[in-house]
Structure formats: structure tokens, C-alpha cells
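User: Please write out a complete single-protein record containing the residue sequence and its fold in C-alpha cell form, without commentary.

AI:
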Amino acid sequence: MLIVTGGIGFIASAALVFERLQVFLDAGHKSSCDINALLNCGTVMRTPQAELFGFPNPFIGIVAYAIVLTIGAAILAGARFARWYWMSIEVGVVLGSLFTFWLWYQTTFQIDALCLYCMVVWIVQTALAVNVTMRNIRTGVIPVSPRVAETLPAWSWFLVVMILLVLFGIIFIRFFSNILSMLS
């Protein structure tokens, strides 16, 4: 899971960095994911929210997903990590998810445009965070009752799907009139 989500997140972040660099070079650049007024990465990446810390947000994604990929590769090679390390990973994916949800809120309710590459990141970050948390519950890194530790991780995919249905359901409701006009 770490390799898959890390790889997809890294590629989506790299595509966003490439597109952002093109905008730096040419202010009139039309991004590869500028489909219409609603699905428009260029609109999103030209907002202050796209550079929350003074540099393009996708740089954070490139670094973070490279770390996730590295951890996944290390586990695949047989590495075992201490409880403190898994807690650090947990903190990282939770903070990454909070940042991702904040960006989702900004694009959905403040910017009024959606970025396809960003949506890919929302999906993989949700799957990553839920699965890392469930792994940490199952292995006792996050202390819970034995019954919860045995039962809850089996519901991880259901939880991922439910979170994504809520996020994309809100988008659908929020932009329903835009979606109808695109279809007609």
C-alpha cells in the first residue's frame, strides 16, 4: 500500500510541480488538466492557497510521497521499524491528510475550481492515511481494545470508500449546476 499510494502521489505531485513551473515560465500557460472552468488546475495553482508556505504546495507532496515510497521499499526489502517510527509515520500521514482536507475545502468552497491532479492526491492520501492507521491499530502501535484491533482494520477499504464518497458527494452537490451545464 505504501508503494502504490506513494508512487501515485509522487507522480501526481510531480505533474503539478511541472505545470506550476510552466506557469512561472509563461503566465498564460494552459495546464494539461485545464479542461473547462470547473476542472481547471491552472485556476487552482494561481491562488494563494496553492502556495500556503511561500512555495508551491506540490513540493511538499514530492518530498512526502518520496518518503512514503522509501518506507514501502524498505519494508518490502525486509526492514522492521520500531513503534516510535510507526507513530512518526502516523503523525505524518494524519498531518498530510489534514492539509489535504484543507486544500479540498479551499478548492471546493473558496476557489470554485477543481484540479484533477489534486483529486488524485486526495484519493491516495485518504487510502494511505486509513491503511497506515489501521495497520497501527492492528499491530498495537495505537493502543485499542483487542476486539477493536481485530475488527476495525477489516473495515479499512469501507472507510476509504465512505470518506471519498462524502468528499466527492459534497463536490457533486456543490457544483451540480456546473456539472449539468457541462453535460448539456
In short: The chain has one domain: 2-183.
